Recover the amino acids of this structure.
């Protein structure tokens, strides 16, 4: 079940959901509008699942940065989210999708206990200028059924993310 705007606001007030920084004006009927952070990593080399990928980190300047088709970009959300009660699901939205920007298609689920600034997978259909702090997507919060287990307490490889995480699949293939 997806939480409504009023339920998200109540959960933030009670501490069951943490959104840092939080702005109540960013609540929509069933989601919170999250923003793009100011760091982006660019991959311009061939990728190999058995090796740690190489990315160049860049700060997105206030005047924006033009993303190009054919490159893989990893960004990060401005907001850090956490909940020990609700699962989270993040997506891009219509505002950036209409610009030909695909955001976070492959890993939208944040398990109960995830406490992160989300790493964003970004691809573009055409050259497009992006800006730090711009609205980039929506996050929804989901009630779970059954016994929950906190992702943070399970020791998974992407716990406590505070920035951009690259793929760690190579750790499993070593």
């Amino acid at each position: 079940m997806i939480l409504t705007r009023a339920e998200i606001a109540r959960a933030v007030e009670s501490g069951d959901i943490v959104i840092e920084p939080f702005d109540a004006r960013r609540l929509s009927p069933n989601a919170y509008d999250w923003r793009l952070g100011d760091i982006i990593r660019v991959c311009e080399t061939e990728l190999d699942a058995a090796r740690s990928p190489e990315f160049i980190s860049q700060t997105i300047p206030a005047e924006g940065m033009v993303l190009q088709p054919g490159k893989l970009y990893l960004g990060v959300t401005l907001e850090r989210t956490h909940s020990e009660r609700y699962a989270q699901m993040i997506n891009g939205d219509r505002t950036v999708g209409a610009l030909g920007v695909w955001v976070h298609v492959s890993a939208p689920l944040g398990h109960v206990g995830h406490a992160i600034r989300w790493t964003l997978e970004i691809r573009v259909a055409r050259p497009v200028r992006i800006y730090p702090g711009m609205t980039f997507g929506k996050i929804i919060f989901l009630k779970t059924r059954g016994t929950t287990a906190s992702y943070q307490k399970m020791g998974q490889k992407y716990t406590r993310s505070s920035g951009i995480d690259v793929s760690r699949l190579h750790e499993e293939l070593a």
In short: The first helix runs from residue 5 to 14.
